[in-house]
Amino acid sequence: MKSINIFCFGFGQVAKGFIKKLIIENYNITLTTTSRNKSSKENFKGINHNSYLFDGNKFDNNLLVELKKADHILVSIPPEKQEDLVVKNFSEFIENSNVKWITYLSSTSVYGDHKGVWVNENSKTEPTSFKGISRLKAENSWLSLQMSKNLPVQIFRLSGIYSNEKNILVRLKLGTAKLINKKDHYFSRIHVEDITNILCKSLLKFKSGEIYNLADDKPSSSEDITLYGAKLLNIKNIKKIEINEIESEMLKNFYKDSKKVSNQKIKDYFGYNFKFPTYVEGLNYIRDNII
């Protein structure tokens, strides 16, 4: 049986999905996680583990013992004040650990606005949003650590994530989905299962210092996806609003950027075939099997 001692900074949907995938793949898993809540003993899918307090300003010192033992580290917590919190607080401990795989989950927001054209890992990174600027600075801090200390670091730039639980079909059923009127606005997305499948592949085929886009095959407009979801659920008369009517600052920033994110590198390097190549397969599966 394959064994893994993994330390997860943050334990959200991607990290949890990854652990589920490792269970399916019959790994013997030693797990440690962090949380903004006080330290506690937890059980996830039958795995007893410690969840340690780490809120950016303070952390439970006991986590340092487990961090030094870890051979794999997954970082999914966002930067704060444009600093990566793991590099800021734990770089010296990680340098002196036995880690052989560090994955930093970034975002395709680092590319900024490319007027709807295709971007790949070699494209210019000119982020327009605070989130994108922060993510790019965090990436650079990890790459700097990788080069100066010869640490095994890879970066995955994630597109918009949807899952069986969080998706446009759920929002349509709740009545919270809206059509945003913006012509030729393209963005990419990926189902969380495809993210976790690729993470699992990278355990066996790892190259330090590399950056990969994680996106499916079909960049599309938000309107296209919403209308397709509505068709699946036979929902009509969705409220349409103009860009200047958006109240959420995060959503406003989202609509500033238009780009199509290429996934060719992960297909070529990992030999990966998507479970959900586009939102069509993803939403059809969710409608037929989940909701």
How does this structure look, described?
The mean pLDDT is 95. The longest helix is centred in the middle third of the chain and has 20 residues, at 130-149. Helix 1 (13-24) packs across helix 6 (192-204) and helix 5 crosses helix 7 (222-233). Helices cover 36% and strands 22% of the residues. The chain is α/β, with parallel strands linked by helices and 291 residues long. It has a domain at 3-163 and 189-215 and 261-275: NAD(P)-binding Rossmann-like Domain (Rossmann fold), CATH 3.40.50.720. It has ten helices and 14 strands. It has an eight-stranded mixed beta sheet, with helices on both faces. A two-stranded parallel ribbon has the order 7-14. The protein has a two-stranded parallel sheet with strand order 9-11. The protein is globular and about 55 Å long. The protein starts with a strand and ends with a helix.
Cα separation of the termini: 35 Å
* CA-atom Rg in angstroms: 19 Å
Coarse shape: globular
Question: What is the helix tally?
Answer: 10
CATH class of the domain at 3-163 and 189-215 and 261-275: Alpha Beta
Secondary-structure element sequence? EHEEEHEHEEHEEHEEHEHEHEHH
**Average of the residue pLDDT scores:** 95
CATH fold group of the domain at 3-163 and 189-215 and 261-275: Rossmann fold
